[in-house]
Amino acid sequence: MKKLQVEMLQNYIGGRWVRSSGSMKEPVYNPASEEILAYVPHSSTEDVDAAVHAASDAFRVWSRVPVPRRARILFKFQQLLVDHWDELARIITLENGKSYTEAYGEVQRGIECVEFAAGAPTLLMGKQLPDIATNVESGMYRYPIGVVGGITPFNFPMMVPCWMFPLAIACGNVFVLKPSERASLLANRLAELLTEAGLPDGVFSIVHGAQDVVNRMLDHPDIAAISFVGSKPVAEYVHRTGSANGKRVQALAGAKNHSIVMDDCDLDGAVKQIINAAFGSAGERCMACAVVLAVGGIGDRLVEKLKEAADALTIGNGLDKDVFLGPLIRQSHKERTLRYIDTGVREGAHLVRDGRRDAAAQGPGYFLGPTLFDHVNSGMKIWQDEIFAPVLSVVRVGTLDEAIVLANQSEFANGACLFTNNGGHVRQFREQIDAGMLGINLGVPAPMAFFPFSGWKKSFYGDLHANGTDGLEFYTRKKIVTSTW
Ligand code: NAD
Predict the structure, then answer these.
(1) Which of 157, 372, 407, 477 is the most exposed place for a label (fewest CB within 10 A)?
(2) Where does the Aldehyde dehydrogenase domain lie (predicted)?
(3) Architecture of domain 257-440
């Protein structure tokens, strides 16, 4: 693997690696070993301003580069990502903790976004109507919007930035990324590969840091749009502040995804899917299954099988062979999760499997084993809040109607799944559930890059989602030309 910058991460501004002028920094840990991989600077307002200035200069040229030429650079970038697949996956596991298999899959998701964006010549075509009146024609042309700021979370250091910058730059925009300060290494490698692919200086920049960088991006007058992915309170704040400052904002937020299990389903298949959805990536996925709604008489058998499958999971360093469950991202996140487990017990939920005992067996690293609660109800904090960890709650309900009513009480509405063999149940679920991304007999219904990533309610703030034609609309503005000769 290529040697990483293990001391202080640098910003990437105007095609050059530069030290931040900020005076604060924090460590980026390997969550599996607690070893420090690098320090990430808390960049200053001046650093953000320098990146936006370089980006604005680049925009004047890049926005006029013919679309097929822009696409060609993305094709080259795609090939470089394929060539460096293993290296990228290892960096993800190193800084995020998820298993190598999960990280490998994440790289694939990133590559798919680049492939979608490389279709820019087709995506950016306008529309014409030759006769809107006698001898009068109208046409619609798409244009970029300018400097786009991207603010991303720790849980998908590759996939989430790739939801944003490939399509943004394919559309002729320039992009300033602020990666998560808890998983900041991968972004720098992406910048190196973009440069190798021939992307001109200033089209893609990185400013590392935390809250202050976000705040400067939100009020910088030369940033036209903000793409944000992260937790609900921050998404709500970013959307409100960015919108008040006249920017386009799309802010993808937290989740509490429900899976409904009917007694007519393939139970073993459902258990396999739910285990992966609840405990894969240590539950640190916005599409994680957090609640299972066991319908009718299936509860006892389901809980027994879930426990058995959870007992069989291998916990450890994600780079080790056959490890399924890696650590949580930070000690503070682990402690927050432990408090939720205490709360669940205090609230009267039945702790069927206690992941705390696996944690003790692991040594260094922020490990927590799969944790399973049964007899949870909607009055409990463990049902209401996003825990974002390997903690799964089972709620017993009598009917599909009840299950849907309960799931719809959640303030979040990112994803929802149904396990059944009954077409009527599928139709009822599809029509009545409040969620933007639905799975039938599968556990993680994350849409591919050519569909929008489509959370509802408090899982999304804005109008146009990431990816697909929503992404295209978000990163372009239009001119309608009406003419007669
Ligand atoms: P987070 O909200 O803590 O951080 C996200 C970004 O916001 C980071 O870059 C961080 O530096 C910045 N930030 C944090 N606090 C801030 C503040 N007070 N002011 C301004 N900026 C701030 O999120 P996280 O813990 O990195 O990621 C996990 C969250 O992201 C979960 O809630 C998860 O559901 C959500 N997520 C959602 C999706 C989706 O598609 N809806 C996808 C991935 C992750």
Answers:
(1) 477
(2) 17-481
(3) 3-Layer(aba) Sandwich (3.40)
